[in-house]
Amino acid sequence: MTATSDPGARPANKFAAVFASEYLVLGLCVFYFLAFAPFTEGFASRGNFSNILITLLPLFILAIGQTVVLITAGIDLSMTSTIALTSVVGGMVMSGENGWLSNNPTAMPVAIIAMLVVGALVGLLNGFAVTVLRMPAFIVTLTTMMFVGGFAVWLTKSKNIGGLPESFLAIGNQLWLALPLTLTVAIVAHVMLSRSLFGRWLYAVGHNSRTAYVSGVPVTGVTCSAYVVSGVCAALASVLLTADAQTASPVLGRNMLLDVIGATVIGGTSLFGGKGKVLWTFFGVLFLKLIDNSLNLRNLADWDIRIVKGGVILVAAMLDALRNRLAVRGS
Amino acid sequence: MNHKVGRRCPQRSAPREDRTRKNLQTPRPGALRTATSCHPSFPAGAALLFVALAILFLTGCNKSDSTAPAPGDGKQLTIGVSFETLQTEYWVAGFNAIKGELKQRNIKMLEAVADGDANKQLEQVRNFITRKVDGIIIVPKDAKTIIPSIKAANAANIPIVLFNRPADASAGTKSVAVVADNFALTKETVAYMIGEAKKSGKKHKAMVIMGDLGDINAIGRRDGFDAAVKEAPDVIEVVSRVPSEWNQEKAQAGVVNALQANPDISFIFTSSDFLFPSIISALKSSGKYKQIGEPGHVILGGFDGDATAYQMLKDGYLDATGVQDVYFEAKASVQAVLDMREGKPVAEVIKDPGFVIHQANLKEKAPQMWGANVKQ
Amino acid sequence: MDSRNPQQPKDTPLLELRGIEKSFFGVRVLKGVDVRVDAAQIVGLVGENGAGKSTLMNILGGNLQPDRGVMLLNEEPFEPRHPTDAKRLGIAFVHQELNLFPNLSIAENIFLTSFPRAGGPFIARRQLHVKAAELLREVGLEISPIALVEDLSAGERQLVEIARALSVSPRLIILDEPTTSLSTRETATLFALMNRLRERGLAMIYISHILGDVLRLCDEIVVLRDGEVVGNGLRAEFTAERMISLMVGRELDQLYPHRTRPDQTTENSKAAALLEVRGITQPHIVRDVSFTLNRGEVLGISGLMGAGRSELARILFGLDPYESGEILRSA
Predict the structure, then answer these.
(1) Interface check B47 vs A, CB under 8 A
(2) Structure-model confidence comparison of residues B66 and A275, the more confident one
(3) For position A206, what pLDDT does the model report?
């Protein structure tokens, strides 16, 4: 019996082939950039590239965490609150004014470790509720978002924490520190997803967790770990954001949630689970940031930018649903 | 036989030969094969995407055409204005005042509103710098979060002025702040109220509604209130201090509780006029919202000078409010930017004295009160 | 495919089930079932829906535990608590609903819980593909192991499932209704494979409704009805009619009521016509199908799998489109 390729799953339509390509979004980025650069002063300048990069890196890390969770057909709405909580915890540890380890040379590394641990704990809480308590991820992470966010505000009585050590601040505005950190996270995530046991299991669980369970995949452990990963990613992003803003704030990152999920979906990760790649997410983040930056430079008001971004994300979600329907039709 | 039924349309893509049985496991959303559409949506999806991009293009193009440089007189200056929020009337008034001032001086204005997000505000400031603005006027969320923005502006040698909220002086950055003298103006306002209170000859039980104590303005106003009250211990007894955290609901709850605990409160000062709706509602429900001159009138005073306060003054319910002179602050900010640009020495803190507006000077001072000039 | 030696019952059976009982919520589903399977033998298990076939197989496969009864594997007591127990002891279960992940490759599906490792959590890719290719050769599937399962036809997926079953080197494979989604050609391939496996010494339990296939393939046949074994013996002792009678518990001619159909005269035909279908054509699905349905009439539509019966029904119902023809219904 010879292999027969199914004509239904791979559309013969060339138009459609473009949409199925994983480099579609990258192409859009290039197209967009070339289209807008001549009309937008400063868009193509060196300073602007570094500005884009500074805001892109934390978003990318967040999106990587979200990608991992989305692959399992879950979702993590609590990432932004985790950013706030870890930021505040970090500040409380290392702040030069009243920090627990203020002016101690170990303050910065301990603070960063504390932030990562807190992020992982939030992720664990999410994972536990989703797997052991069998609650829908949407509700779980929504609740965590409110709880953790409120907790962060309570911890600091809604005040910001300044006086962070110089060594910490360097991570934020020195690209040559932030960039390798982000690249490392991206590479580790990519390798994990594509070449490790855990990665294959993530995709299996995302496609159908019942089937995965019956096949012997440790669904509980895998799903829980996905949320821990996203919690840690939120903490890492918080490191970058806190260092850039030079203050630990209990409302840090509050408006980033739509950007994170939107960028991930634009990149091609499916909201239905079973599909996603770090590379795709990078393209999605890049695209969103290019739009954001260019519209900012064109002096579009914030709410107008949101309308545009919302529109783009909507189209991306529609494409996702469409691809999913076609894939099912062909199966 | 007359009714035609069924779906009639050409199918584009070649369907499968074998049809798999519907998967009997719990279907995931989207896994059920629902009706196939007549026309594959690729063209629709593509069209939408291109429409989205077209919108981008168009909105973008429109914006840039709207602010054309003035003909003739040399290079037009550009000032970037970044507000942390436009959530209260005061900020909106301030924003418009600055806008008006810049328009008058024929300076191009770039706007940015950050919606409470510190990182976003920083990003917006960076974008201003990329666009090589000649100056920046900024409303920070608080003294600390603004520091990186100031540092960035300093590094790019762009003068930066803080509007209505001061910076943290210890950071070693260079900036000018135009702020209201919260302490003095509040003290003056409360002193006037105390003057009215003295007229009755009785001792008044007083309530003060404080702002978010993370906001340095709120602290200044609280201190001003305390200072004024201290000087008249036999007229005023403070029985309630409500921490509103600049939140309507908290203010309302606090006022309601305070009135229940002390039903004979007859003197209320609020650190910001925008909390009046809550206060009025609480007073009305305990039947204590009376005009000046009516028996049982509670002496009311506020701060900011917004449209609500103006209406209350006109209607005779409000005794006094300390008005932040938004027009002064806007003028001073713009002037400070220009002065700094030219290298002239500018004070680090420029104080807006403001003024107290009350029943006696209402007509005279109304034009200077920004709340009176807000278009409803 | 033609060499079939009548099996002599061996002295030590590979598998023995004695007195298996199982109830769900007070409903007795299995009332004392005895089954015996020898090595190199295909045993057919038939029965109506609800007879207890799936329950019995689930018990054998470790998904359920019997309330009473004993299972012996090579004379050793066999009490699997989980599918992995059963797998370890050499019993593989190919379910009716394929437990495959279309978003993963063939090789990944086969070795999902038994990946060859390259140190730590990483998968040894080359080894994985080599092993998978071996298994694919064994089942006669000439497709690259890195192909995604979503590109395979139903028959090919079935073979992948069997390859997966073979990857644990089983002694017994249970096949639950494997041919429902297969075309005639694919079924033939499957049977050829099963014969080859039998010659290698594997035992198989074959559950199916298609009695003709059971008679073709199996050495012994077990008939279940209402949780009890009502018929058990060599293939030669059974005919389709006998199997059906045993399955339903009545003689065949008692199964259907006599038809009292009113005579159709041509004058009445137009008035009685309810639905008229003319020349319905949908490329690759149905071609030029026409019929008339009259009031008070039951129209039977039959054909082989793949003939287009269900597809026609969907078209009539409006779920799927058609290219040409007419469907008319009376007012």
Answers:
(1) no
(2) A275
(3) 94
Centre a 10 Å sphere on the Cβ of residue B233 and count the other Cβ atoms it contains: 10
Q: What is the pLDDT of residue B17?
A: 34
Which residues of chain C form beta strands (DSSP E)? 15-24, 27-37, 42-47, 68-73, 76-77, 91-94, 172-176, 203-207, 220-225, 228-234, 273-282, 286-294, 324-329
What is the structure's pLDDT at A6?
36
Q: By the CB < 8 Å criterion, does C152 face chain A?
A: yes
ipTM for the predicted complex comes to 0.78
How distant is the alpha carbon of residue C174 from its chain centre?
10
pLDDT tens, residue by residue, C186-212: 888 889 999 999 999 999 999 998 888
- Asked if C141's CB is within 8 angstroms of A207's CB, the reply is no
Which DSSP category does B154 fall into? Answer: H
Decide if A21 touches B, using CB distance below 8 A.
no
Q: What is the pLDDT of residues B96-105, one digit of tens each?
A: 999 999 999 9
Q: Are A144 and A78 contacting, i.e. CB atoms less than 8 angstroms apart?
A: yes
Let me know: does B321 contact B356? Beta carbons within 8 Å. yes
Q: Calculate how close chain C gets to B27, using CA atoms only, in Å.
A: 12
C50, C120: one domain: yes
Domain that holds residue C147: 15-254
C159: CATH: 3.40.50.300
For residues B320 and B292, state if they share a domain: yes
Of B296, B330, B349, B273, the residue nearest B109 (C-alpha) = B330
For residue A287, give both structure tokens: 């695209």
pTM of the model: 0.77
Mean pLDDT of A46-64: 90
Q: Specify if C8 maps to a domain.
A: no
List the chains bordering chain C where 3 or more Cβ pairs fall under 8 Å: A, B
Domain count, chain C: 2
β pairing state of B108-113 and B135-139: unpaired
Contacts of B173 in chain A (CB under 8 A): none
Residues B175 and B320 in one domain: no
Do C246 and C280 share a domain, yes or no? no
| Cα distances (Å, whole numbers) of residue B158 to A194, B79, B120, C267 | 48, 10, 19, 98
- State how far the alpha carbon of B238 is from the alpha carbons of A31, B47, B207, B225, in Å: 66, 67, 6, 10
A126 CB-side CA count, 13 A: 36
Q: Which domain holds residue B194?
A: 182-324+357-373
C6's enclosing H/E stretch is none
Q: Answer whether B282's CB lies under 8 Å from B259's CB.
A: yes
Q: At B29, is the pLDDT very low, low, confident or very high (cuts 50, 70, 90)?
A: very low
The domain of A149 spans: 63-329
Residue found by looking up tokens 């038939």 in the block: C46
- In this model, does residue C58 exceed pLDDT 80? yes
What pLDDT, in 10s, does the model give residues C306-329? 788 888 898 888 888 888 998 888
Verify that C71 and C146 share a domain, yes or no.
Answer: yes
Asked if C35 and C16 touch (Cβ cutoff 8 Å), the reply is: yes
- Using CA coordinates, name the residue in chain A closest to B22: A331
Is B15 within the bounds of a domain?
A: no
Alpha helices by DSSP H, listed for A157-207, are 166-173, 175-195, 197-207
What pLDDT was estimated at residue B46? 56
Are residues B91 and B141 both part of a single domain? yes
**How does pLDDT run across C270-292, given as a tens digit for each residue?**
567 888 899 999 888 888 999 98
Same domain, yes or no: B199 and B277: yes
Q: How many domains does chain A have?
A: 1
**pLDDT per position as a tens digit, B136-165:** 999 987 778 888 889 889 989 999 999 988
Averaged pLDDT for residues A146-151: 94
Q: Which chain C residues in 184-213 lie under 8 Å from chain A, judged by CB atoms? A: 185-186, 189
Does one domain contain both C186 and C227?
A: yes
- Whether the pLDDT of residue A309 is over 50: the answer is yes
Least CB–CB distance from A272: residue in B30, B60, B144: B30
